[in-house]
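Hey there, shall we discuss this one?
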Amino acid sequence: MTRSTSRQRDSVQIDRLFVSPNAFGSTIYVDTTNGNDSNSGLDPKSAFATLDAAQTLSAAGDIIVIAPGTYTQTAAEQPLTPKANTHWLAAIPNGRAAPNVIIEGTAEATVVSVEVNGVIFEGIEFQADNAAVTRLVSVADTVAVAGLTFKDCWFDAAGVATVDGIEAVDGTFGVTGMWVTGRKQRVES
């Protein structure tokens, strides 16, 4: 009689090299509907409710997995400021459809500020909800930034002509290796 057993693996073998699913950092979960900022954030069932809680816990090399929903950055909060080499990822890929993860700015000038290297945003819509927002994403205001990626992201200025999608115009500091990819971008007229 043949006996079969199965077990869950915490690593994957690739050509004699064992690699964990996230070998260089932790995976942090955020769920605006079911999460709570007093949770650990280290399991989908104990997800944080806000991106700020995930940003506070995160370290270089972490992956932040974001459940569908709208995450609001308000005037009382600072812009979302990712740490180096972090990957901000929608839990459910959007493919050709509109992203199901929205980071919305309500009253501050900048929704997201990137001042570190190696940040990746994937499957996220950055959105302004009023004219108080002047830029959705600000890059390299205080230091040079390398390796910034926006994959399948949308930038929605909500019809406000004075809102910049990505601002990287500082004359002192530069941005190198910035990639913006996607199948469809929303254009407001």
User: Anything to note?
Assistant: Residues 51-57 form the longest helix (7 residues). The chain has a mean pLDDT of 79. The helical segments are 51-57.
